[in-house]
Amino acid sequence: MVDIVFEAKRDGLRGNGKRGRWRSPLDGHVIPVIGRMRMTDIYQVAVRDAITPIWRAKHPTAIKAIQRTRMVFEEARFAGIACDPFTVDAARRMLGEVRHQVEHIAATAWQDVPALWDRLDPDTISGLCLRWMLLTVVRFDGCSRARVSEVDASGIWTVPADRVKGREGQVQDFRVPLPPAAVEMVQDRGAGLLFPGNTGQPIGSRAVELYLDRIGEPGRPHGFRTAFRTWVQDTDACSYDVAETILGHRIGNKIERSYARSDLLERRRPVMAAWAAHVTGADTADVVP
Could you count the other beta carbons within 10 Å of the beta carbon of residue 255? Predict the structure, then answer.
């Protein structure tokens, strides 16, 4: 039944479900325990027993596992199988309350970013990729597979929709106005990937994290986005809409977005220049929010 549900949802998942690993919580924790049981024989105790080992130890994963288990029960019910999604609801109640403390990704303080920039070796692919991430504040998936051909003559980097976070069919290409320091990184790079790993494939996330470990930096790559957003808050560098658009976040509800369609490119450009000036330790650029 899991296969049937997954196939039904595949077209709505990024990368046909592989990118977001939709099945992972089920394959890793639920199926090994109850996967061989008939749906009609699965009661709440069995579901509870499958989820219990991770309910507190890996609570976010447990939530995904139990939500997707319920989806399977719902689809089985529609298919005429004598099972009840309430079974999963009851199992969740039996698992009890959890006081889960969200652990934020470690972020470099924005005041310390210029010092970090100086420690990133541009003669290494990891150091170069991390510098690019600092300047653009684009997520790792967008940066790691960046290609020279994605940057046009005007200094606009277009991140293809398949590397932009979001639900399938609800994302589009994302334009990034590159500051001069980022444009310089593209010059004389030839063609192909900007950050190829040792095998010629895009650099991996583990490689850049290990690089940060080696230079003694506790902040993580995704935390660069936090550094930028906190810099905006502390310096009033730009408006909320501009800051959120730079981060690639969706603003407003569906109706508002259907009318307000600008990606604020020209308003983002001076803010990115000011951020780059801070990152590289140059004089602060003028900002026009």
Answer: 8
Q: What letter would DSSP give residue 75?
A: H
Q: Cα 236 to the chain's mean position, in Å?
A: 25
**Which CATH architecture is the domain 2-95 placed in?**
Orthogonal Bundle (1.10)
> From its phi and psi, is residue 236 left (phi > 0), alpha (psi between -120 and 50) or beta?
left
Q: What is the token pair recorded at 108?
A: 């470099």
d(CA 12, CA 28): 22
Which DSSP letter does residue 168 get? T
Return the residue matching tokens 């009840």. 84
Instruction: Tell me how far CA of residue 69 lies from CA of 19, 20, 125, 153, in angstroms.
Output: 20, 17, 42, 50
Q: Which fold has domain 110-280?
A: hpI Integrase; Chain A (1.10.443)
Task: Give how far the C-alpha of residue 125 lies from the chain's centroid of Cα atoms, to the nearest Å.
Answer: 21
Tens of pLDDT along 127-171? 999 999 999 999 999 999 999 999 999 999 999 988 888 665 567
Percent of the chain having pLDDT more than 90?
60
